Amino acid sequence: MLFGFQRNAGSSNLIKTGVQSGSDNIQVKEYKKLTLSFKELNSGFTITKELSNTNTLQVSLPSGTYQMIAEGNIVYSDPSGSIEAKVAGVQNGMVINGNKISKTIELSLKAGNSSDLILEEIFFTGTRTPQGAMYFGDQYFKITNNTDKTLYADGMLLIQSSFMTNEKQDYSPNIMGTTLSAGAIIRIPGTGNTYPVKPGESIIIAEDDHQSQRFQPFIC
To answer: Distance between CA atoms of 142 and 37, rounded to whole angstroms?
Structure first.
């Protein structure tokens, strides 16, 4: 599925948005509810809009570089019939600078039969402090409950690979294609019902939450 938007030139920085299907086998019958979030990556300015029973939106944004997140529910038809499903998509580095732009964001169907927590978002690029220096302590994982029941994060493991694809390493034999070598393992503590995650809600595991709130209070 594709989510398209267009910005017209002018001082108001008007964004026109729309959703369309990118597959011949999936025909969208109803856009039940979509939430669109625009975050300016340098200032932290954020605006969120909701669409109900429509696939178009106009929103005015200040100039800047944005991350755009779209998620919600649609009803679509395929050869098996009508299906209601959750969709989501992300567009990073969208530049709004007074010129006319036209971009497309891919919307993916979320797995409807997942019975566990999912890793929804990984932020690793870092941001700038008010003094203009790069800061990477705000890196985080976003873990989401994509089911219709309360789940618990207790005992969940996050495993960091010791293999780095951006670093040249000579292994003999070379097992990178078939094996994961753990460089670090992070375990969420708890007794089994200490950290509940309600349906549709998320938890954030941050690199340095305290310092992130100090340098970038708008991101925490």
So the answer is: 16
Question: Could you tell me the pTM of the whole model?
Answer: 0.48
Sign of CA pseudo-dihedral 38, 160, 110, 116? negative
Question: Can you tell me the distance from the alpha carbon of 37 to that of 130, in angstroms, rounded to the nearest whole number?
Answer: 23
Q: 135: which 2 tokens?
A: 């800061």
- Contact status, residue 50 vs residue 71, Cβ threshold 8 Å: no
Tell me, what DSSP letter sits at residue 41?
A: T
Question: Residue 15 corresponds to which tokens in the numbers above?
Answer: 């964004």
Condensed to tens digits (0 to 9), the pLDDT of residues 96-152 reads 876 666 666 777 776 555 578 888 888 888 888 888 888 878 888 899 987 878 999
Token pair 């809009």 in the structure block, residue:
49
Instruction: Report the Cα 40 to chain-centroid distance in Å.
Output: 14
Contact 105, 2 (CB under 8 A): yes
Contact present, 5 and 15 (Cβ < 8 Å): yes
Which of 16, 21, 27 lies closest to 49 in space, CA to CA?
Answer: 16
Q: Contact at 8 Å (CB) between 64 and 41?
A: yes
